[in-house]
Each structure stands twice: as C-alpha cells, then as structure tokens.
Amino acid sequence: MLETRDLTIRFGGHVAVNAVSCAFAPGTLTAIVGPNGAGKTTYFNLISGQLKATEGTVWLDGQPLSGLPASARTRAGLGRAFQLTNLFPHLSVLENVRLAVQATREGPHRRGLNLWSIWSDHRSLTERADQILADVALKAKEHATVASLPHGDQRKLEVALLMALEPKVFMFDEPTAGMNAAEAPVILDLIRALKKDKSKTILLVEHKMDVVRELADRIIVLHNGQLVADGEPAEVIASPVVQEAYLGVSKEAA
Predict the structure, then answer these.
(1) Over the stretch 57-83, which tens digit does the pLDDT of each residue have?
(2) Among 46, 20, 29, which Cα is nearest to 191's?
(3) Using alpha carbons only, how large is the chain's radius of gyration in Å?
(4) Distance from C-alpha of 160 to C-alpha of 28, rounded to nearest angstrom
(5) CATH number of the domain that 184 lies in?
(6) Could you tell me the residue range of the domain that residue 226 belongs to?
(7) Number of structural domains, the chain?
C-alpha cells in the first residue's frame, strides 16, 4: 500500500500541493487528472523523491519514505517514468535495459567471481533485457544508440527500463505524450498487461480522457494543488467540480 499523508510543498508563497492525503492499493490503477498547473507532476515528484516535501509524509507498505532520496525510494519499490526521457543517450538500447535489470539483481556481476560465472550471469541479464525489449516492440533496434531513436521509441525504452526495475508501484506521467497514433497503443497495451498483476499498484497522470475512462479503476482530481474529487471514473467525471475545474464546464451547465 502506497500512502501520502498531508503531503504539501510550498514555493515561496505558492502552495503547489496542499495537504494531499491518499492511499493506493495493490491491484488498482489510479488516474490522477486535473487542469494544467493543478499539481499532478509535482505530486508525483514528491512521492518519488525528486522534490522534498514542506510538510507531510510518504509511506510504502507501512514504511516511511520521507527523507529518502529518489534512488533509495526506487530500491524500496517505487518505479517512475517521466514526461521527458531519462536515458543513457550514448549507450545502445540493449545496454540501457541490461543496466536496469542488473541494478535489481544479485549475482556474480556484483561479487567479482570467476570469468565463467560472470559470463553466465551476463547472459542471463541479457536474456531478460531481450525479453523486455520484445514486449515494448524494440527488439529490432536493440543495437541502435539511444540518441538515434525517434521520440516515440525513446518513450517506449523508458517504459522498458521501468519494467526492468520490477517495482511494486508503477508511476506513469503522461506515458504517450509526443507519440503518434501508431506508437501509443504499444505503451497502453503494456499498461493493460501490468494491470493483470494484482500485486502491483499503478498511478497514471494522463490528459486523454478516453485513456483514463478505459484504464482507470479510480480517478483522483487535483485542482490548485488540492484533492477535489476521488472515486470511480464515471462518478468522478460526471461530478460538477470536475466538469468545472477540469473540463471547463460551468456548474450550471453540469
């Protein structure tokens, strides 16, 4: 269970996220929506440790994460994909994923044992990386340098790295941003497949309401940094506060 308790951050006199308390259970996909500037990505940054909270705490499976850097939160089980790619541009596609797989596994590569065991371990890491690349439809480009990839393929690679980390919590921040109509379904299919694993928690920041309606088990809405709605998708989307704050419809029209 991932929880935020009164999570808050202030930038001078501006409160970007204001006392947001929420719990996210395994086996659910929660979409986080709201207008531009509502605090969605900032909320993600507070959870994953890219920003330090002014007040409030983050918990995972009953253990406090507040005060831990982003790297320690990743090791604890938080997996974060960013709006902008966060890759090793001068390494190959395969090398990027193999490094992510290697980071999560014990083995001879960590202990400096004999050359045979290291080679065998290296082969195992490569096989897992190959499997992940096949899942994200990048196997044919495994030897390409990341910097040479188009934007859509870089986004797919970023999801591949997230899958390689095998986190308890998957955090997707607009995963199909910048993708064309042919590229986006690959990522959405991956998220659908992840949903089938009921031990995983998925958080999704997304502006495309058709995607939200299809994938989300639950929607929470942020507006001016505050949690203004939380519930089942149909109920939340139809609520007057969401119609006004997110969809731009007046309360009277709603």
Answers:
(1) 999 999 999 989 988 998 899 988 654
(2) 29
(3) 19
(4) 21
(5) 3.40.50.300
(6) 2-90+155-245
(7) 1
